[in-house]
Design brief:
The protein has about 290 residues and is α/β, with parallel strands linked by helices. It has a domain of about 180 residues: 3-Layer(aba) Sandwich (Rossmann fold), CATH 3.40.50. The chain is built from seven helices and ten strands. The strands form two sheets. It has a six-stranded mixed β-sheet, with helices on both faces. Helix 3 crosses helix 4 and helix 6 packs across helix 7. The longest helix has 20 residues. The radius of gyration is 19 Å and the shape is globular.
Length: about 290
């Protein structure tokens, strides 16, 4: 089966988004975690979201994924309000969350559990995505038989196999060593260029945000809101030693450091410690 480009109207719009949690302080009340988030993501774009811990990045992904319906404002995909989880939104976590008793191809196939495809189509999709993430020859391997980087490739394939319109990435390389992380950043960039699916990446790593994104959203805490949006007008594949890349990275990093100096981090709600924090009944909702 061949990949198709997304419909040009398949855009993500976030308008006036706000989110409150009950405060954990003894005085009670509410904690404003997100406030006034306005973000437009055209179809097929790669947007990186970077900011200090507690600024609401993972809460934002949780709301886009549809895991929490209690918020202010609107989240629209293709002009329609997001309601609950759905096949059009995939997700990759920092922890690969593979089932240890399933093989590589079986773990990828879990992403097709509720998909309206025939058994033959599902086998073709799994084989295509094994190849997409460069794991040919490891289809029958179990998670304990492959490296952490390979396991994260399986998680990316599982997130993409269902042909979502948007792939949400919550610190997907945060648990990996620096060399493996760099290699997988290159792989993810290659996959995005090939598939042209809309991707939203949450990361603490400014260099990663600039290397992967064609737009970087800098967030600041107390409450979480957008400080500014930086367009990354650099060709792919990107070169980390390119002076233009270094200048953009340092520009964004300066904003990031300013955020740390000018604002006190908000207390992160339980849903952000760590990652998106899926409830048990939704562990398979990728």
């Amino acid at each position: 089966m061949t990949s198709t480009l997304p419909n040009p109207t398949h855009e993500l719009d976030i308008r006036g988004l706000g989110k409150r949690y009950a405060s954990t302080q003894a005085s009670g009340g509410e904690l404003q975690v997100l406030e006034g988030i306005d973000l437009h993501v055209p179809a097929g774009r790669f947007v990186s979201i970077v900011g200090a811990s507690g600024c609401g990045k993972s809460t934002l992904l949780r709301l886009i994924l549809g895991l929490d319906a209690q918020y202010e404002g609107q989240i629209l995909l293709d002009g329609q309000p997001v309601s609950g989880t759905g096949r059009e939104r995939g997700v990759v976590f920092q922890d690969h969350r593979l089932f240890p008793w399933l093989t590589v191809e079986q773990n990828i196939a879990v992403g097709l559990r509720n998909a309206p495809f025939s058994a033959t189509q599902k086998r073709e999709l799994v084989a295509e995505h094994v190849a997409l993430v460069g794991l040919e020859g490891f289809e029958k391997s179990f998670p304990h038989q492959i490296s952490g980087g390979m396991a994260q490739r399986v998680a990316i394939a599982r997130g993409l196999v269902n042909r979502p319109r948007v792939l949400l990435l919550d610190e997907p390389f945060g648990a990996l060593d620096a060399l493996t992380r760099s290699r997988l950043q290159n792989e993810l960039q290659r996959i995005w260029q090939k598939e042209r699916i809309t991707m939203l990446l949450v990361t603490h790593d400014v260099e990663e945000a600039v290397f992967l994104g064609d737009r970087v959203v800098v967030m600041q805490p107390s409450p979480g809101r957008i400080r500014r949006i930086v367009d990354i007008d650099l060709p792919h594949p990107r070169n980390r030693s390119d002076p233009a890349f270094i200048a953009l990275r340092d520009d964004v990093l300066g904003d990031f450091l300013d955020v740390g100096a000018d604002a006190s981090p908000a207390v992160a709600p339980p849903a952000e410690r760590p990652g998106i924090g899926l409830p048990g009944r939704l562990q398979l909702a990728w």
